[in-house]
């Protein structure tokens, strides 16, 4: 049996991808800077922003690496960050998102250690783009059981923490997919390869509403088409209703969190 060092002594790499993110980036960087976990490597991958995104990032001394160059979209930027990461565990927090309090990363690493698993996910709240204390919907993922992907389930990707060796063994994001590469990666790791996984039953990330795949009905249709491709790429056969259940499963989230005030303080710029 492999003997591994405790997670609480391991380096954790957090990747933040940016493009013209000056309006929200300070909140994201500040929430990572304030984390009490002592072994954080923070990597910022920028797609040659036209605003002062990079200048803002350079004011945060805790950041380990800043890369600013043209890329082929957000998943390409995430892959660049993964290749740069030296931590044993990798998380991704993008420039519209923030952790809900300074103990989140310590709790994540302790939970991974106590469960002995290689992948963790948790719950997420979507908040208003300009009023981050106003919750629009709550994504309560629930415990994973094999087969849930067939019923349209997926965990919220911003809450995902993965051992780097999983990326090395099973691959990174498929950049042929514009909208659903995160879904395909999680399908590949959890459903196809059945990696060891644990669920942290609390909200750890707040995300400002307005993702690309949900920006229009046309984009939602494209994302649904790519969801079907994700199964084909992995040599898997979904049920006929699987990819239609995926967006439908989110409807209940609105009733759990619609327009409710957050109990946590807003991020400070």
Q: If helices are DSSP runs of H or I spanning 4 or more residues, what is the number of helices?
A: 9
Helix percentage: 25-40%
- Principal-axis shape equals globular
Uncertain regions: pLDDT < 50 for 5+ in a row?
none
Give the termini distance in whole angstroms: 47 Å
| Biggest β-sheet description | 10 strands, mixed
What is the CATH topology classification name? Spore Coat Polysaccharide Biosynthesis Protein SpsA, Chain A
CATH evolutionary superfamily? Spore Coat Polysaccharide Biosynthesis Protein SpsA, Chain A
Mean pLDDT metric: 91
Strand content range: 15-25%
Task: Label the structural class.
Answer: alpha/beta
Instruction: Give a count of the beta strands, DSSP E runs of length 2 or more.
Output: 10
Order of helices and strands: EHEHEHEEHEEEHHEHHHE
Named CATH architecture: Alpha-Beta Complex
Number of discrete domains? 1
Radius of gyration: 18 Å
CATH class: Alpha Beta
Structure description:
- By secondary structure, the chain is of the alpha/beta class.
- It has one domain: Spore Coat Polysaccharide Biosynthesis Protein SpsA, Chain A.
- It contains 9 helices and 10 strands.
- It has helices spanning 25-33, 53-57, 74-84, 104-115, 164-170, 181-192, 217-233, 242-248, 251-257; strands at 12-18, 40-46, 65-68, 89-92, 97-99, 119-127, 134-139, 161-163, 197-208, 260-261.
- Strands 1, 2, 3, 4, 5, 6, 7, 8, 9 and 10 form a 10-stranded mixed sheet that branches.
- α6 runs parallel beside α7 (217-233).
- The longest helix is centred in the C-terminal third of the chain and has 17 residues, at 217-233.
- It is globular, with a radius of gyration of 18 Å.
- The termini are far apart.
- The model has no long low-confidence stretch (mean pLDDT 91).
